[in-house]
Please model this.
Amino acid sequence: MSLADRLSDWQTAELIDATTAARIAAHEDARSRPVVLWAVIALGCLALALGIVSLVASQWFAIPDGLKLGGHMLLTIGAAATVWRARTHETLWWAEGALFLLATLVLTGLALHAQIYQLTGNIWRLLMAALLLAGPALAIAGRTRLTAYALIGIAMWATISWASAVDGGGSGHLLVQGLAIAVPWLALALAAFVRDRSAFASGLTEAAAVVILVSASLIHIAWADPVAGADAADMAVRFAVALPAAALAIWAQRTHGPLPRQFALPLIAIPFLAAALAVALPHGNGPLPRFVGALIYAAMWGGVGWVTAQRGWRTLFGIAIGALALRLFIIYFELFGTLATTGFGLVMAGALLIGIALAWRRIFRRFGS
Model:
């Protein structure tokens, strides 16, 4: 519904009078932005950029190597100068856009040098070099969610690529894979130390929380498969490497913020423990391990739901309740197996799903009231 329709409905319901409606409309008009105009301009800029890229790509091998490297160097210097000038004149989004472009140019510059001088190699080496070169700039100068997402994105991409490239047979390989696991918790720790840059800290916290909760929920599937002792021992080493990062995140968030103190356990400690138990504890695939896994999953999301209810965070509360409801629905199929796919079983599954949805809606409404 448009704002005018909402105001009309509120007046009809006698929630506001005509004067209040006019004041709300005037306030929103003053804050409105030409979204359509900027969307068209952005689309035009995208088309222009794609056209330039296409023209350059079509003649790429005809362009001398020196010209390629020189042109890229000029673009990189220009992006760095724009960051410095925008910071001097306190134009936030120019600075953030230029900083994001600078990090992108560092990555593409490494790829360009590799194409010209080193035609073979592992991509993780390129990504780790980009992280070491561009990561500090993003961490030090970042001010918004844009650069926060760029930092955690390149950090995870680089470390996961490195971890995937090793075979896990030696202690050094386990160390690398443990480092990849530690990245979201390190991001939470960094967010606490840069809390004065609220948008940047919020971006790091949000991205890290999503990665942690989604990863712990997916790793939960491991309870349905047997985990041998040797595999569990390797996973224990990996999580032992990541443990200091989780401990640092808990300490930093509890002492410096920006997360409330009571959120440290359900968002940082419990997901770490849930993921570690799922893959670092030897178990079979019988009913008991599945039941234990379901309890751990429920404890994790139940803790998130309880804390978000206390803080009044509707979105994350709804996600927590939805995650618990989804797990309850999956339990039905785990309990009844192939019987759940029969006609009667599907009828029961449908009724269960409808009941869960209605219960979720009722709980969410009560939370909102």
